[in-house]
Amino acid sequence: MNKKKKGARKLSLNAQINLIRAGVMGANDGILSVAAIVLGVAAANVSTHNILLAGFAGMLAGTISMAMGEYVSVHAQRDAEERATADETQRMELNPQAEVDFVTHKYVAAGISHDLAAKAAQEMFDQAPVVTAVRERYDIDPGEQTSAFGAAIASFISFPLGSLLPMLTISLVGNAWRIPATVASVVIALMITGAIAAKLGNANVLKATVRNVVAGLITMAITTMVGHIFAR
């Protein structure tokens, strides 16, 4: 049978990008958070066992925190979108022409002639009144919704994967080089995640990458310094 399951819907490109974003940011946070922990502990001159124990604790806490954070934040966004849709539905019932006029004036302000703007606005409202009102007033597409569960799963998987890099580096490299080797590997990883995040958000790749690396270096420097202060 070729019938699709009822309610099944293919994710839009925007929804897919949001899930990828959640995964990339989860990996980025996993890399940096656990790197900061293991570097701080390593700087205190403790055993590799204790370093990995602290790293594992940080990985577990961060994984749960990131997943729950994504789930809650996406739901909060969806609540706001539903509220916007409810408001526009009410406006359309009370004064639909006012909404058409709003969109017309918006397009005229963007440089479109009044007649063309009015015609375009009217055609859009004739086809999908509430969707058009929400999209034009709030820049929200009610038909596109990011999966809160999907975003949580993406973070749940990517955070511990990112955490493995600093944990493996600091445990496999000799004591004399484990801190600089971990810092170097984390910087390379942060360059990659920063560039990917910038690409997804259509931001300046160089600026985003440098910002991500600088923030990471500052974080690692502070935790390493604290570890040295409490070294045995």
How would you concisely characterize the structure shown here?
The chain is mainly alpha-helical.
What would the keywords be for this entry?
232 residues; mainly alpha; 81% helix; disordered N terminus; single chain; 0% strand; 2 domains; elongated
Describe, in plain words, how this protein is organized in 3D:
Its main location: membrane. It is found in: Endomembrane system. It is a single chain. The protein is built from eight helices and no strands. With 232 residues, it is mostly helical. It folds into two domains: 152 residues; 52 residues, no CATH class. The longest helix is centred in the N-terminal third of the chain and has 47 residues. The chain starts with 12 loop residues before the first helix and ends with a helix.
Approximate shape: elongated
Major sheet, described briefly?
none
The unreliable regions are 1-8
Distance N to C terminus = 69 Å
Number of E strands: 0
Count of helix runs: 8
Estimate nothing, just give the exact number of structural domains: 2
Helix content: over 70%
Order of helices and strands: HHHHHHHH
What's the oligomerization state? single chain
Protein name: Integral membrane protein
Keywords: Membrane, Transmembrane, Transmembrane helix
GO molecular function: manganese ion transmembrane transporter activity
Membrane topology: Multi-pass membrane protein
